[in-house]
Amino acid sequence: MTGKDHMVNKRVTSSDSLSKTRKVYVPVYSNIYQRTRNERTSLTSTLSIHNTSETDTLFIKRIDYYNTEGQLVVKHLESPIYVNTFETIEYVVDEQDNSGGSGANFIIEWYGDKKLNPLFQAVMIGGLGNKTFSFTTEGVYFE
Q1: Which of 31, 56, 94, 134 makes an SS bond possible with 40, Cβ 3.0 to 4.6 Å?
Q2: Does the predicted model carry a pTM greater than 0.70?
């Protein structure tokens, strides 16, 4: 689920009892260094946005993907989307896509009821030889 079928039909205003927009930084890795600075292993990265509420809808107004140099690579949303209660939406950066580099990140802006506590995570998976590995990162709030 990428949220494309979850477009918000009307603009939600502050009179709808929603709090201010909050921003989250989620680190992801398109590739990681292997043995030397010149050897890299490509990874598949999945951003997951979880609405952990059983009563309130989560609204997402921005999901942007930035590379190691801090340059915008992909703007995923043209207009806000919603995430239903207990729903998760995902965005995948394919293993062949090295545009983000070793220091890529997603910036997410969201809003909703003040008591919402969504979870923003990324899972990276890759392999070396006949071994596979995975690891996760958590989103960090910023102003």
Answers
A1: 31
A2: yes
The contacts of residue 57 (CB under 8 Å, 6+ apart) are 51, 82, 83, 84, 85, 112
CA distance 141 to 143: 7
For the chain, give me the number of helices (H) and strands (E)?
Answer: 0, 12
Percent of the chain with pLDDT over 90: 69
Quick one: 98 exposed, middle or buried, by C-beta within 10 A (0-12, 13-18, 19+)?
Answer: middle
Q: How many residues does the chain have?
A: 143
Please compute the mean of the pLDDT values over residues 90-97 and round it to a whole number: 95
End-to-end CA distance of the chain: 28
Summarised one tens digit per residue, pLDDT across range 44-82 is 999 999 999 999 999 999 999 999 999 999 999 999 999
Burial profile 7-46: b = 16 or more Cβ within 10 angstroms, e = fewer: eeeeebeeeeebeeeeebebebbbbeeeeeeeebeebbbb
Q: Looking at this protein, which amino acid is placed at residue 43? A: L
- CA pair distance 40, 88, nearest whole angstrom: 31
